[in-house]
Design brief:
Layout (H helix, E strand, L loop, with lengths): L1 H4 L3 H17 L10 E9 L3 H14 L1 E9 L1 H9 L5 E4 L5 H9 L5 E15 L6 E3 H8 L9 E4 L5 H10 L9 E3 L3 H10 L3 E6 L1 H4 L6 H4 L2 E3 L1 E3 L6 E2 L3 H5 L6 E8 L6 H10 L1 H10 L2 E2 L9 E2 L5 E2 L1
Parallel strand pairs: 1-2, 1-3, 5-10, 6-7, 6-8
Antiparallel strand pairs: 3-12, 4-8, 4-9, 4-12, 4-13, 10-11, 14-15
């Protein structure tokens, strides 16, 4: 900054204007800014409900149109490398190997952590046992017999929940026996609500924010208390348990922006991580990265308000 101070003021201003003009000129046809234009966002299908709310509010406030494209986790990540999309939402960060690909393209991904989600286990309402041991689930996925588990049901073989649970179990692929997969979280919820003895594995926001047509199925399942690998307690995926790190299946959520210019990816990520976006997350049942502040009004005896 000291070097800039030596330049005449008009030259300094010109340099700043040229910097932003060049940066903006990289955007498609120069029509997209951080708060204006249109963009596509590929999102891990497990996280779709919370992103739909964010997009609805963002579009209502700005002259912007964001198209959400729900895909499996692997398809979402591949959209970046195939250059089909430049903005994605995932339940994991990019790996070192993945970052090297963008380094070769001379693009530095802008990564924003915006919430903490949880993987939830659900069972049919008729099942009186509302506690499941994570150790038992892992053993079942490793092909070992577990009398308390009849079967596990996932949303998609390429989903983030499958990848997450495979990682915990130390396996590369889900076993063929006793583990089933559909295409969406809604299909898992519907199946478990209609079949006793099965345990479904879903993103928790599909339970806290169901579509109206899905409410009857959500009402017919129990969200199970999970007993972790360490400790004696069993906990539900509530905001409080996630915040206190009691629930063992929590995971951070990321917006990964690889546009390479100041476009809607930057504006949308800032919005989601900002006060309004974090309030939307808090209301959804997930845990925001930053708890929004609240103004409390105290009325004294004289009738004057104090904050």
């Amino acid at each position: 900054m000291k070097n800039y101070a030596k330049l005449p003021y008009f030259i300094f201003v010109s340099v700043i204007i040229m910097f932003f003009a060049c940066n903006q000129s990289k955007s498609p046809k120069g029509k997209e800014t951080i708060l204006k234009g249109s963009a596509s966002v590929y999102v891990d299908e497990t996280l779709t409900p919370i992103l739909e709310d964010q997009v609805a509010v963002f579009e209502s406030k700005y002259d912007a149109k964001i198209k959400l494209i729900p895909k499996s986790e692997s398809e979402t990540v591949n959209s970046l490398f195939k250059e089909e999309g430049a903005i994605v939402v995932l339940s994991r960060n990019l790996t070192t190997e993945e970052l090297k690909i963008f380094e070769q393209r001379k693009i530095v991904p802008k990564i924003t952590v915006f919430a903490t989600d949880a993987v939830a286990f659900i069972s049919n309402k008729s099942n009186n046992d509302t506690i499941v041991s994570l150790k038992d689930v892992i053993s079942f996925m490793q092909g070992k017999p577990v009398t308390s588990i009849k079967g596990l049901v996932f949303d998609n073989p390429n989903s983030s929940t499958v990848r997450y649970m495979n990682s915990l179990a130390g396996i590369k692929a889900i076993p063929e026996k006793g583990v089933f997969s559909f295409k969406t979280n809604d299909e898992v919820i519907k199946y478990v609500s209609e079949n006793d003895g099965m345990i479904g594995v879903v993103g928790v926001n599909w339970l806290s924010q169901p579509l109206p047509v899905m409410q009857k199925y959500v009402d017919n399942v129990n969200t199970l208390n999970v007993k972790g690998l360490t400790g004696d307690g069993a906990f539900t995926p509530s905001q409080n348990n996630i915040a206190e790190r009691k629930y063992p299946l929590a995971r951070d959520l990321y917006i990964i922006n690889c546009q390479g210019y100041s476009g809607l990816g930057m504006g949308f990520a800032s919005f989601v991580a900002g006060d309004i976006g974090q309030r939307i997350i808090l209301k959804s049942g997930l845990l925001p990265i930053r708890i929004p502040g609240r103004n409390i009004t105290i009325r004294n005896k004289s009738g004057n308000d104090k904050k």
